[in-house]
Amino acid sequence: MKNAAFKLAGIALSLSLAWSASAAPLRIAADPVPHAEILNFIKKQDPSLDLQVVELTSGVNANELLANGDVDANYFQHVPYLKDQEKALGKTFAVAATVHIEPLGIYSHKHKDLKSLPEGATIAVPNNATNLSRALFLLQSKGLIKLDSKFSDPASTLATPKDIVENPHNVKILEIESPQIPRSLDDVDLAVINGNYALEAGLTPAKDALGLESAAHNPYANILVTNPQLAKDPRIKELAKDLTSPQVAEFIRQHYNGSVIPVSAPQS
């Protein structure tokens, strides 16, 4: 009888813990724009899902927050960046949803088009490995540089400035922390800026960029990431469903005018 009682108590405790987890707020670390804005839209659309949005500030590593259990998920990054972070942190995370693309763009306060780029121009690019490589692939697609032919797949090969084999304008590559690049626009000829930081700086990528990544077959879609043990949590599944819904896709299309592009939901 005692053993049966202990088993029943254990089952009751497990059910209680599971209920407590599902009833607790879902803590999501996100960049302010557009990620937190999208999550706040979901809070209005799905009030039954208790979201606690933690807006990221410069210097905070959202994957460390997730690994340490300080948040339940994060929404700010793409798969190549996540893979690089998993290696750096010695952790394995789980992708719960693929949501949108923020095309990387080339901007300038000094030049109206890429054809007017002077000899020896300075180009600011992100200094983290994945977005640095992404920026170099973008510059190559616009004919400003050429990378070694072994760098054919931006999703699986990371290029650095040392891998530039043709540089017809003798451009200088200046590596800067991604959030700081918009502030460098007055000091450089061109700047390659992530979509979220461009939006935060008041730029409209679809209108202001001198060159944008193609959205077609783009490997840099932004994702919802969680820990493997939470991947089947009903709250995570519900948020993933919301993020990939036609309603959220329509919000993204209307609110960002082509500067953020939904990838998972058909147009409603």
UniProtKB/TrEMBL annotation:
Source organism: Pseudocitrobacter corydidari
Keywords annotated in UniProt: Lipoprotein, Membrane, Palmitate, Signal
Protein name (Swiss-Prot/TrEMBL): Lipoprotein
Keyword Lipoprotein (UniProt): yes
Subcellular location: Membrane
Originating gene: metQ_2
Family statement drawn from the similarity comment of this UniProt entry: Belongs to the nlpA lipoprotein family.
Keyword Transmembrane helix attributed: no
Record membrane topology: Lipid-anchor
InterPro entries: Lipoprotein_NlpA
